[in-house]
């Protein structure tokens, strides 16, 4: 009998899982007749999951998050018996006989040699199964998402892949589990892997939820290994952390001189009745790269070009990979714009 996992069973920078009740309350009390919800920077998809009973539009520019969104929200077909058999096969497979891209490049970094062999085998095999038509797109995405969650459970890191712990003490066995995605989804859900600014005007929705990066820490740096596996182009990697070229993955929202301009462009394109903008003030940091790139004044000025703005706030310290830079003035804010222009 396979163990299971759900969308919340993952550590991820900026994850709003613990804030879902608050976010839903703000929407339920201030937004009327909501039938559709656009998670514009979806990340793990936790906020979209809170509105699973709506028509969802989900977007993230990282392929790893896109595949996870297909797993959780796609209306595509999924045979759970077939999926279970494949996950069991991978769990029982002895991958120690052959090296592959993963074991040749990542052994004894984030994982030991045997685990890297298994990750590489699974990724090669599931791609061939999908390309040969033996599994559907959602089944393919579900297996890779299961692999990501399995890796996160045993990775020798502080919670992301910007670096690894160099003590050689690897623990745990890679165990693929069954995703708890056996629930009804709207047949008109749409999933995008794209720059959010490029698709902002392509979908008409009731609520557009914006949760862009807050600071200089690029997600493609923190999760480069998962992105490498998601894309599976087998690029050359370099440096101690074994990172690939991520030039085309950088977000404008992580740069002070571009963040406000990017947000203004995005907000002007959205076709919705409400814009809900989530932003953490990050407190005062010891490292300037951790400081927020947008001021409250900039956010309110930009949102006000589309309508009236209310601000809701609560004290909150999110996942920060074990660092202790945040201080007591750290707050999560929701800026709600009632769009009328």
From TrEMBL:
The keyword Transferase applies. It is an enzyme of class 2 (transferase). InterPro entries: Ade_MeTrfase_dom_2, DNA_methylase_N6_adenine_CS, MeTrfase_D12, SAM-dependent_MTases_sf. The keyword S-adenosyl-L-methionine applies. GO terms for molecular function: methyltransferase activity. Its EC number is 2.1.1.72. It catalyses: a 2'-deoxyadenosine in DNA + S-adenosyl-L-methionine = an N(6)-methyl-2'-deoxyadenosine in DNA + S-adenosyl-L-homocysteine + H(+). Keywords: Methyltransferase, S-adenosyl-L-methionine, Transferase. GO terms for biological process: methylation. It comes from the Bacteria. Pfam families: MethyltransfD12. Belongs to the N(4)/N(6)-methyltransferase family. This is site-specific DNA-methyltransferase (adenine-specific). It comes from Prevotella illustrans.
């Amino acid at each position: 009998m396979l163990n299971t996992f759900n969308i919340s069973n993952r550590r991820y920078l900026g994850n709003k899982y613990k804030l879902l009740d608050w976010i839903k309350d703000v929407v339920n009390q201030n937004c009327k007749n909501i039938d559709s919800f656009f998670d514009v920077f979806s990340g793990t998809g936790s906020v979209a999951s809170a509105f699973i009973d709506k028509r969802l539009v989900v977007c993230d520019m990282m392929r790893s998050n896109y595949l996870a969104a297909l797993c959780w929200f796609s209306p595509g077909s999924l045979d759970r018996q077939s999926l279970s058999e494949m996950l069991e096969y991978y769990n029982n497979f002895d991958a120690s006989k052959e090296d592959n891209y993963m074991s040749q490049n990542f052994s004894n970094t984030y994982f030991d040699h045997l685990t890297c062999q298994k990750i590489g085998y699974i990724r090669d095999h599931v791609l061939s199964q999908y390309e040969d038509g033996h599994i559907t797109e959602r089944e393919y995405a579900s297996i890779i998402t299961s692999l990501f969650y399995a890796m996160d459970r045993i990775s020798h890191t502080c919670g992301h892949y910007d670096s690894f712990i160099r003590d050689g003490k690897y623990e745990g066995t890679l165990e693929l589990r069954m995703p708890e995605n056996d629930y009804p989804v709207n047949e008109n859900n749409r999933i995008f892997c794209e720059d959010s600014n490029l698709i902002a005007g392509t979908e008409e929705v009731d609520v557009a939820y914006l949760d862009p990066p807050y600071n200089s820490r690029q997600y493609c740096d923190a999760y480069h290994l998962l992105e490498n596996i998601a894309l599976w182009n087998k690029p050359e990697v370099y440096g101690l952390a074994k990172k690939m070229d991520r030039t085309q993955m950088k977000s404008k929202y992580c740069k002070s001189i571009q963040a406000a301009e990017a947000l203004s462009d995005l907000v002007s394109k959205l076709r919705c009745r409400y814009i809900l903008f989530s932003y953490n003030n990050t407190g005062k940091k010891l490292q300037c790269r951790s400081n927020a790139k947008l001021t409250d004044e900039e956010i309110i000025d930009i949102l006000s070009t589309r309508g009236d703005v209310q601000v809701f706030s609560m004290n909150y310290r999110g996942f920060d990979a074990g660092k202790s830079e945040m201080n007591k003035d750290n707050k999560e804010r929701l800026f709600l714009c009632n769009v009328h222009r």
